[in-house]
Specification:
Strand content: 15-25%
Number of domains: 2
Helix content: 40-55%
CATH class of the largest domain: Alpha Beta
Strand order of the largest sheet: 5-8-9-10-11-12
Distance between the termini: 58 Å
CATH architecture of the largest domain: Alpha-Beta Complex
Length: about 290
């Protein structure tokens, strides 16, 4: 147990980065007992990696993500969640890192109970939320302090938290096939500089191509009409490229609607929506 501060009448916790076991080893200490943490086999290791990637994409800018980082949860306990989210700012009192806000454990059906003991230690120490991902049965859980057990999460829900800039889809935590989509969507919502630059380049190339084509057609139909048509075609092609890269499926009718659109303001509205929409209904929705 933690020592007791008689002045304030509350537990005096050790610093979260004050070690009981040697770092960079495969050991934890739980209740004073040295525990060997075995290397992960394929399903566990693969899911561990994908959760780290998901959190890196969804985390708020003032937070950082770590894997297998030891956290001192008491006088006799020093454990490492599989993935954790903690503040970037250093602890003003200790100068070390601050306690994580979120912790994620990748578990098998058999180890869910063991992970519960770990979750209880972490939340008792002050970690706000602890999650478990059951790889075998593709389920996600959150630890309930009031119930003292795991609460299963709706697979269609999103985890919202102050440590996350973008809500984290539960489905992406449990289904490997959804990881890339969730990462891409989060980066688009966060206006990742690389993706924004790509979008700007696509627009510029589309505009240049459209203007070139418009100049040729303008010899017969008038420069103004030709340039307007070229710009619209360029914007439409840029829109199709963005939708294709985001994996939004287009039928023949939707593709024809985009290519036939000549209203530049309408195309610009669609381009803005294309950065975050997930369905054609979202793209074409009118206020």
């Amino acid at each position: 147990m933690s020592s007791f501060d008689a002045t304030h009448g509350a537990p005096r916790w050790p610093a979260v980065d004050e070690r009981l076991v040697a770092p960079e080893t495969r050991y934890e200490i739980a209740g004073g007992v040295l525990v060997h943490v075995s290397p992960a086999h394929e399903p566990h290791g693969s899911r561990h990696s994908k959760i780290s990637a998901l959190l890196e994409a969804h985390v708020a800018p003032e937070f950082d993500v770590a894997t297998d980082m030891l956290t001192r949860t008491g006088e006799t306990t020093d454990v490492a969640p599989d993935v954790s989210v903690f503040p970037c700012e250093r602890d003003p009192e200790t100068g070390g890192r601050q306690l994580e806000h979120l912790a994620f454990e990748v578990v098998s059906t058999e180890s869910l109970s063991h992970a519960g003991h770990k979750a209880a230690d972490l939340t008792r120490r002050g970690v706000r939320r602890v999650f478990a991902i059951d790889v075998e049965r593709e389920r996600a859980f959150e630890w309930s302090c009031s119930l003292g057990t795991w609460r299963r999460l709706d697979p269609n829900a999103h985890i919202e938290d102050l440590a996350l800039e973008v809500p984290l889809p539960v489905a992406a935590l449990v289904h490997a096939a959804k990881t890339d989509d969730a990462v891409a969507r989060a980066l688009l919502i966060k206006q990742n500089p690389v993706l924004e630059a790509t979008r700007a380049q696509d627009r510029a190339e589309g505009k240049a191509e459209g203007e070139a084509k418009g100049r040729v057609e303008g010899e017969a139909k008038g420069r103004a009409e030709g340039e307007a048509k070229g710009r619209a075609e360029g914007m439409a092609k840029a829109l199709l490229m963005i939708l294709a890269r985001r994996g939004v499926l287009l039928g023949a009718a939707a593709r024809a609607r985009i290519l036939d659109e000549r209203d530049a303001e309408q195309l610009d509205r669609w381009l803005d929506r294309a950065m975050t929409c997930t369905t054609l209904a979202d793209l074409f929705a009118e206020p």
